[in-house]
Amino acid sequence: MILTESPRTVELRANQSRDANSMTARPERLTQPAHPVVTVTNPEGSGRVVICCEHASNGFPAPWGRLGLSAEAARAHIAWDPGALGLAQALAKQLDAPLVHANVSRLIYDLNRPPQSRGAMAAQSEVFEVPGNAGLDGEARRARTEAVYVPFHAELRALLARRAATGPLPVLITVHSFTPVWHGRPRMVEFGIIHDADPRLAQAVLAYAPAGLDARLNEPYSAVDEVTHTLALHATPMGFLSVMLELRNDLIASADAQEAMAARLAPSLTAAIAAAESEG
Ligand SMILES: [Zn+2]
After folding, report:
1. What is the pTM for the complete model shown?
2. How many Å lie between the centroid of ligand 1 and the Cα of residue 194?
3. Does domain 2-279 fall into CATH 3.40.1050.10?
4. How close is the Cα of 173 to the center of ligand 1, in Å?
5. Distance from the CA of 164 to the CA of which of 30, 238, 261, 277 falls in 20 to 30 A?
6. What are 146-186's pLDDT values in tens digits?
7. How far is the CA of 175 from the centre of ligand 1 (A)?
8. What is the DSSP string of 177-241?
9. What's the CA-to-centroid distance between 23 and ligand 1, angstroms?
10. Among residues 31, 52, 32, which one has the least CA distance to residue 173?
């Protein structure tokens, strides 16, 4: 089970990799990223909630670089969820929650996808080709999985386990943003509330959603679109309440807007958790 491997193990194995192909192998097979792929802030926060932001970053660190994308494409929503990190940080402050977030682009590895998914290292995203992801072989996919996916999810899993061992059951909330226009079509939904197999918290968040926000259940995506991997991995099997929040990114485009949205959402989330819990 790959999740039992520590980042240290991964690093050691990468350094020991000296097979016959090593002279011609691309650098990503041999080296690890220059910067940590995951950051955890406020791990001892006093709240019940643990926040996760898988698509926080449009960082393209070595050894991968920009994967052949233009600077414009690397800044676009295909590379990350614009505004999501600022919102997640503001929510973490409001709820005194730990925050686990990524430091690499979803195009290097989409942390909300399992390693076997084509979307984990997508060769195409909306209308953009991703040249650096075209024709990745098994070893290249494994190297990226071990460098990005394994340490990220090991960190999140360990944090949740520590908190479950010493306090009340944690509540996992993942924070995302979506583009207002998709394949040329405007999206009216402003606040998407998405659940994995356990709908308790998502239904309560919808019931307590802030007034004036177009909130919808399982829009613009749902579990059938493969977007609940993090919830399925870390919350559903443990019985932790969980929900994925998707905000339309034009509503959280500035630091002020992110703070304001977090201030609107935090009381709703707190009320929803209490309601979901009392339903048992
Ligand atoms: Zn996302």
Report:
1. 0.88
2. 12
3. no
4. 12
5. 261
6. 999 999 999 999 999 999 999 899 999 999 999 999 888 99
7. 7
8. EE-SEETTEE---SEEEE-SS--HHHHHHHHTPPTTS-EEET-S--GGGTTTHHHHHHTGGGT--
9. 36
10. 52
